[in-house]
Amino acid sequence: MKEPGKNIKGVRICTVNVIMLIASCVLFVLVLYTTVQISGKYQDLVATTEDYIACEKNAALVYKGSDYLTDEVRLYVQTLNKEHADNYFTEIHTTRRRDKALENFPKHKTTPETYAYLEEALEKSNRLTAREIYAIKLAAVARGQSMEAFPPIVRETNLSPEHKALDAGAQIDLARSMVFDGAYQNAKHLITGNISYFLNSVILETRQKQQNDTKTLGDILLKQRVVLVVLCLLNILIFLMIIVLIIKPLQVYMQCIKEEKMLKITGAYEFKHLALTYNDIYEIKAANNQMLRYKAEHDPLTSLLNRSAFDSLKQMLKGRADPMALLLIDVDYFKEVNDRHGHEMGDKILCKVAQLLQSSFRSEDFAIRIGGDEFALVMTEADSRMKLIIKNKIEAINLTLQNPCDGLPPVSLSVGVAFSAKGFPDSLYGDADSALYDVKARGRRGCGFYEP
Predict the structure, then answer these.
(1) What value does the CA radius of gyration of the chain take, rounded to a whole number of Å?
(2) Measured between alpha carbons, how far is 293 from 411 in angstroms, rounded to an integer?
(3) What is the rounded CA–CA span in Å between residue 35 and residue 311?
(4) What is the β-pairing status of strands 324-331 and 374-380?
(5) Cα separation of 48 and 203, whole Å?
(6) Percent helix, strand and coil across the chain, each rounded to 5?
(7) How far apart are the first and last CA of the chain?
């Protein structure tokens, strides 16, 4: 028996499984990693947009706060309604939209240069408030309003001697001129310009960040697509390998088992190993079956077919259409020879008879030991025209047996022959036995043919 697994070449399922598992895990980790990167870049894009909105919102607060102060101071110097002055100082001291815009604005959201634009806008707006407060005090003095009703910053503002010397109408006109003239408008334009510079710079920074993030996101998505394609191809490869290395060999093996054939050496290493092991067992089983069948069908002493095989042969030949002959053979006076010379010598004589029958007749004829000293010979495709041939063969055998040169005692054969024109009828055995009886009645040692 061959040693299983020796000199087997093939892909091991275990090795393939480990490789595919490792590759799948690596690709899965890469998919997770790229997914995390995509999520991070998406959050960066969202944060960039939120930063821009925050910048725009804070710039709007500075702009609206500055414009609100302008509107209220202008309304006050025009109407001299103290409510507008109160609104003005509420914005400066309480609401503080401009200051809060910068206080709540994280500097890291923009570059220092961009943030400086917003700081400069607030600074210019604060410088402009000094002019506006001066105009408020000038108008309040002209109106004759009590300074106690105004915040300390107004009371602490000192009017120039020449402005004090002006009459009330001139003072009011001067106050109005201070918040409406070209210098004031230029100052407002500078504040608006700084806010515009700030917003434009924020837009450029935001656009640059978004472009960078978008490019990075596109690169990550491309990597993820490549990983997914590789993962898909790996899955297809796994399916193909399962089909080639496992499913197809199993189908081949099942067909071989159904047909009771040896397995083909195919598939993965493990299947080849299994097939070789199975084939070794199959060969042993076949040899054992053949040996058992041989023992069941052959006589252990002479190695001729036995009585059981003869019965099966009769059934098999019964339906044949070709002619055949049956020879029934007895060893003459075998019992006396056996008693005189012993059973061992008798066994040697039986073996010699069996050997002579096999060597004298055709290889396609069936030599049979029916039992004891009784033999039979079935000749296929034989008719009565072969009488002389059969008779000569029997005479030659008897001549050999009567003149032994091997130390065995001389013996002879009595043979009865019957022919059948078609197959092996039930009467053929009786006919041959009748012919044998006639030979024995005539004194034995010879060959007789059944005559209807």
Answers:
(1) 62
(2) 32
(3) 82
(4) antiparallel
(5) 10
(6) 70, 10, 20
(7) 58
Q: CB within 8 A of 73, min separation 6: which ones?
A: 84, 85, 88, 132, 135, 136, 179
| pTM for this entry | 0.52
E-only strand ranges, 219-365: 324-331
Distance CA 192, CA 273 (A): 87
**How is the beta sheet containing 324-331 ordered, strand by strand?**
366-371, 374-380, 324-331, 413-420, 446-449
CA distance 259 to 16: 31
* Amino acid letter for position 8: I
- Residues sharing a CB contact under 8 Å with residue 105, sequence separation 6 or more, in sequence order: 54, 55, 58, 115, 118
**71-96 pLDDT tens trace:** 999 999 999 899 999 999 999 999 99
* pLDDT tens profile 342-390: 999 999 999 999 999 999 999 999 999 999 999 999 999 999 999 999 9
Angle at 192 between CA 186 and CA 196, to 5 degrees: 140
User: Which helix H or strand E contains 449, and what residues bound it?
Assistant: strand 446-449
Residues 6+ apart with CB under 8 A from 128: 66, 69, 184, 187, 188, 191
Burial of 295 per CB tally in 10 Å (0-12, 13-18, 19+): exposed
**How is residue 359 written in tokens?**
């060597």
Q: Determine the Cα–Cα distance for residues 199 and 139; give it in Å rounded to an integer.
A: 36
**CA–CA separation, 13 vs 417, rounded Å?**
67
- Phi/psi of residue 369, nearest 5 degrees: -100, 110
49 and 214 Cβ atoms separated by less than 8 Å: no
Question: What is the amino acid identity at position 182?
Answer: G
| Token code pair at residue 345 | 């010598």
Contact 378, 362 (CB under 8 A): no
Compute the mean pLDDT over every residue in the chain, rounded to the nearest whole number. Answer: 88
How do residues 238-270 score in pLDDT, each as one tens digit? 888 888 878 888 888 888 888 878 878 887 777
Q: Cα–Cα distance between 417 and 68 in angstroms, integer?
A: 143
As given in the structure block, the two tokens for residue 177 are: 């001129």
- Alpha helix stretches (DSSP H) within 80-160: 82-90, 97-103, 112-143, 152-155
